Amino acid sequence: MHLLRLLLIGVLVGACTESAAPIYQPPPATDAPAVDIVGSWTLVAAVLDGAPITAAPGFPITIDFTSSSAGGSAGCNGYTTRTTLSGAALQLSNFVVTEVACDNDDAGVAEDRFLAALDRATQVGLDGGLLVLTGQGAELRFRAAEVTAAE
User: Fold this and answer.
1) 78-106 burial, b if ≥16 CB within 10 A, otherwise e?
2) Closest C-alpha to 116, from 100, 91, 88, 140
3) May I ask the CATH architecture of the domain 39-144?
4) Cα distances (Å, whole numbers) of residue 121 to 51, 87, 130
5) What is the number of other CB atoms lying within 10 angstroms of the CB of residue 63?
6) Distance separating alpha carbons of residues 79 and 7, to the nearest angstrom
7) Domain limits of the chain?
8) Distance of CA 34 to CAs 17, 18, 37, Å?
9) pLDDT tens-digit map of 81-114
10) What global pTM score does this model have?
11) Which of 29, 53, 59, 80 could form an SS bridge with 71, CB 3.0 to 4.6 Å?
């Protein structure tokens, strides 16, 4: 009987020292955006601190999202920024803007106000097919850019 107890204790101790099979761990959650924003968009409405931002005729304001960056036309100048999306949370960083002189005063004002509003954007969503970027005192609404056939 004493030998049986020693044998049982040896088996139990041996089982404790061997590596057990790993417990299933689910894959880590991804920070995939809740909304697919990748693509080209054209500004249709915007507000900064309660005042509208209106693109000047002939100077469209656009944004093109990839999975890690965004860029487009601010009216007169081009811009680019790195993007980080987590659900509806949006972070824009490392803005770069060209410095072409704008010969249209209205387009220059719209550009300055658009870039200021874009810099404040912290949330992203879709509303009736429009892409909406919001942040402190800023709301930017874009429609999907029309795709034209290449000639």
Assistant:
1) ebebebebeeeebebeeeeeeeeebeeee
2) 140
3) Beta Barrel (2.40)
4) 16, 14, 15
5) 25
6) 75
7) 39-144
8) 45, 43, 9
9) 999 999 899 999 999 999 999 999 999 999 999 9
10) 0.75
11) 80
